[in-house]
Every structure is written in C-alpha cells, then in structure tokens.
Amino acid sequence: MAKAPAAKRRKKTTHTKASHPHGGVNKAQAIRDAAKKLGKKVRPKDIIAALAAEGISVSSPQVSSTLKAAGYRRTRRTARAASTGSHGHAKSTEVSLEHLLAAKALATKLGSIEAAKKAIDVLTRLA
Fold this sequence. Notes:
Helices cover 53% and strands 0% of the residues. It is mostly helical. Among the domains are: 27-70; 95-127. The longest helix is centred in the C-terminal third of the chain and has 14 residues, at 97-110.
C-alpha cells in the first residue's frame, strides 16, 4: 500500500518585534515608544491618552505590564527587605530592652500598669 503524499504546510512568516502583520507597529512597541517620548516617570493614564490620539486602544493593565517588562517600573521590595527598612533597622513595632525598662519605670512611678496605660492614652489623644 502506497503512502498518501503529505499535505503541504504553509510556510510561517516571521515578523520582527517592532512590526505588526498589517504593516503598523504592534501595541507593545507603541507603548514603549510613547513611554520613551513622555519620559521616565510616565503613568499608564498618560500613555493611554497619547495612544488614543493615534487611534490605538490599549488597556491600563496592558500598559502597566509592558512598562514593567521594559524596565520603567521598579520591582516591589520583598517582605524581609520591607520589614527591616532600607538601613537595616528593626521594625517600629518591635520593642527594645531600653523601651521596656522605661515603661517599667513609668508604671512604677505612676503606681500601676493600668495608670501608665491611661496616661499614654491621654497622651495619644493630645498628640
């Protein structure tokens, strides 16, 4: 039994990154170009307006992800880096030994922990 001839496959056309199959620029490249024109501190709202004037419709999430991929957005800090701060200091919610000793001295001076709490509450209302 003879094999049937294989069906001809269409040759895939390759497009460069900056070109669109219909001859124009693709949306991602248009976003990058608009961002370059508008400067480093560009907002998605500004790019959407600029591209709408050219007749290109893009969404805010599309602009944001393209800007991030192009390096126009900083990456978020990790949880550990955010908790220690930029200079390696402890979180502000952590209490040092000095603070505990000062709180104990205040409670002793005022007569009880409840009296110290009330005094701190009044102080926060005044501030």
